[in-house]
Amino acid sequence: MKSSLLLLFAAFACSNLAADDLPKTLMTTRGKLLVSEDFTPPLAPVVGKPVGFASGFTGWRYNAGPAGGKSGYWKLTDGVFTGVESPGANHPATASFGFQFTDAIIQCEVRLNDVPDEGRKYRSLFVKATDAKDYVIALSVGPGGLFLTPYDAERINPTTKQREKGTAGRALTPVKLNEWHTVVLEIKGTEVVGTIDGKSTTLSNPLIGTAKHSIMLGAGTEASFRHLRMWEALPNADWASAKAALQATVKP
Q: Where is the secretion signal located (predicted)?
């Protein structure tokens, strides 16, 4: 009986340590774990028939062919999912994970790989949430830090037929190449918070509250992802004060 209690206490202590090791959230608290992807083969295959922009399927859709395609391709090696933009394409490699949600906390570790640019325009990566029609919100990371970009349901680009971007929120901080950084995207209602290595920014937009249908990862030049997690986003009683403190640090 005593040994059983010790084992139970040890398990409880380990679970608390694991929770304490997670990056802090500002707007929300973590509820049930919904997605846990460590990028070890095989990735969950696509189930269902894609409908519209990014709906009707679950699992992963991504470019897995050889180099030289229109946008790029992906490599899966030892728990690291790497997107490579083809030289001359000037369009990031993209991978979509079909999963329907409204409010959520999305977290992963990201790395901008130090490889020759070979004429490619941008060294960047992104995590986007999409609804059935288009992009809703984008968290992007470049050498200068993290950017949150909303999309506008009322403004459509006449050439691309896609939603126009709104004004981005910024968390400016140096992002070194070939080093892993932790990003957290909190989505609840019409607000989002984006955090990289503890530095955050926030914004709100009516479109953010729509039902989301997938998470899209993207890599410009070359970037890697690992340890993708997604939790229910529950209310955080401290958000009002945390938001005020965060907004006070934003320069006009």
A: 1-18
